[in-house]
Design goal:
The protein has a single domain (18-472), classed as Glycosidases (TIM Barrel). It is 38% helix and 14% strand. It is built from 15 helices and 15 strands. It has helices at residues 33-36, 49-54, 72-85, 97-100, 110-125, 141-145, 153-169, 182-192, 202-226, 248-271, 276-281, 295-299, 360-373, 399-417, 460-471; strands at 18-20, 26-30, 90-94, 129-135, 175-180, 231-237, 241-243, 305-309, 314-317, 342-343, 378-382, 422-428, 447-449, 456-458, 473-475. The longest helix is centred in the middle third of the chain and has 25 residues, at 202-226. Bound molecules: beta-D-fucopyranose. Beta-D-fucopyranose is lined by residues 32, 35, 180-181, 184, 237, 309, 382, 428, 435-436, 444.
Length: 477
């Protein structure tokens, strides 16, 4: 597909000036272990909180589980060949903690580590840079039984696990991110309970957020000590938060949600402190007694890069009577201390997740991280959209997804022009997969998965992306 003799599948690369990305820009696609691997009980793997959650009635749409998923565990070599055909320069995957350290403590499981060794070797053999995420939400169940992320000890367990993976893969993996989207782990997992482990307690969510970041800091220290050459970072999901009007009450609502969604993580990791307004907003939820002396120094251990996942914008307003909380991330329990803030629907086009499409928000988000927080290299570690796709004559012509990628890449380019050191972009996702509480009902992939036959069909967006990578850019509009 990256063969220059083949014409591009879609006509966005017409004649004319091009929007070229910097040399060496890291073009990739992302996945996560539980969403694609399957083989849930093979090779010594034991349950994670997502196995338990998805096997609990009523938690995931239609009772879907990740037991088989995309069967990537068995199809990995051909999946890597497909990545090579698409011309990917990098592949962001996550390691399943209960596969490599069953139960979450004790010695490594050689069979589990072997799978990732083979994956990394396959990638390197095809000239694809491996990008390893240590934690994409699959906490070993026994650690949840011992208290989960609200318990401080989990942070130490995570650092031990990081070290064990570094020992096995540190000689061949350069790029490491510790956590994927700690907001989701903390506030969807322990606040609203729509994600595993499905608990619902505001104070626990805040504690979980802190211990996730503590685990991140300890893991960075362990990785730095054993692999001084590694490029280390974290991936956070960020949203511009815009007040629905200039009215002071709406502006204050935006401040509160921005504190919980963005600054809760950016400030400790990149500044070594919690925002003071956050502590005030949460005073009836928690006194932050779980924060010990020295924690923030660990959490702000210097990094080499920051990963940003971007999907949409939040527009919020002061409360009114009878506001309807929908979709799920609007659930009041996701926002301890700000439960009465109203999320506003603007009537702009949305994806199949009901997330508003807002490409300029990506430029805004990247500029904010750079201008307010750090000079570190930034990477978009996820960006993408779910749409209802269909196979017609063996093809999937996903024009809406293609347009979404196109618009967001233009927005990313604009951020570069504005001085942001953006060094790479990972499409979410390489292939359709288990979309958490939505099971297989939402498709984010550039590659279609037929879950009955496990056939893979690259969609139009995949062919288009291959061409973007080949040209290192897009046609100017
Ligand atoms: C992100 C997750 C990823 C996927 C996308 C749609 O929040 O990191 O696993 O579910 O959303």
């Amino acid at each position: 597909m990256s063969n220059p003799d083949h014409p591009p599948a879609v006509g966005v690369l017409d004649q004319g000036p091009e929007l070229i990305f910097p040399p060496g820009f890291l073009w990739g696609a992302a996945t996560a272990a539980y969403q694609i691997e399957g083989a849930a009980t093979e090779g010594g793997r034991t349950p994670s909180i997502w196995d338990t959650f998805s096997h609990t009635e009523g938690r995931v749409v239609a009772g879907h589980t990740g037991d088989v998923a995309c069967d990537h565990y068995h199809r990995m070599p051909s999946d890597v060949r497909l990545m090579a055909e698409l011309g990917l320069r990098s592949y962001r995957f996550s390691v399943s903690w209960p596969r490599v350290q069953p139960g979450g403590s004790g010695p490594a499981n050689a069979a589990g580590l072997d799978f990732y060794r083979r994956l990394v070797d396959e990638l390197l053999g095809h000239g694809i840079e491996p990008w390893l995420t240590l934690y994409h939400w699959d906490l070993p169940q026994p650690l949840e039984d011992a208290g989960g992320w609200p318990a401080r000890d989990t942070a130490g367990r995570f650092a031990d696990y990081a070290e064990l993976v570094a020992d096995a893969l540190g000689d061949r993996v350069t790029y490491w991110t510790t956590l994927n989207e700690p907001w989701c782990s903390a506030f969807l997992g322990y606040g609203s309970g729509v994600h595993a482990p499905g608990r619902s307690d505001g104070a626990d969510a805040v504690r979980a957020g802190h211990h996730l970041m503590l685990g991140h800091g300890l893991a960075v220290q362990a990785l730095r000590a054993s692999r001084p050459q590694a490029q280390l970072g974290i991936t956070v999901n960020l949203y511009p938060v815009t007040p629905a009007s200039d009215a002071p009450a709406d502006v204050d609502a935006a401040r509160r949600i921005d504190a919980l969604a963005n600054r809760f993580f950016l400030d400790p990791v990149l500044r070594g402190s919690y925002p003071t307004d956050l502590a005030a907003d949460l005073r009836e939820v928690t006194d932050f007694g779980h924060v010990r002396d020295g924690d923030l120094a660990v959490i702000s251990t210097p990094l080499d890069l920051v990963g940003v996942n971007y999907y949409s914008r939040h527009v919020v307003a002061a409360p009114v009577e009878g506001a309807e909380p929908e979709p799920y991330w609007r659930a009041p329990s996701c926002w301890p201390g700000s439960e009465d803030v109203r999320f506003v629907t603007r009537g702009v086009p949305v994806t199949d997740m009901n997330w508003e499409i807002d490409a300029p928000g990506l430029t805004e988000t990247l500029r904010r991280v750079h201008e307010e927080y750090t000079d570190l290299p930034l990477y978009v570690t996820e960006n993408g959209s779910a749409f209802v796709d269909a196979v017609v004559d063996g093809q999937v012509d996903d024009v809406d997804r293609l347009a979404y990628f196109d618009a967001h890449l233009r927005a990313a380019h604009e951020a570069i022009n504005a001085g942001v050191p953006l060094r790479g972009y990972f499409a979410w996702s390489l292939m359709d997969n288990f979309e958490w509480a939505w099971g297989y009902t939402k498709r984010f992939g550039m590659v279609w998965i037929d879950y009955d036959s496990q056939a893979r069909i690259p969609k139009s967006s995949a062919r288009w992306y291959a061409e973007v990578i080949r040209r290192n850019g897009l046609a100017a509009q």
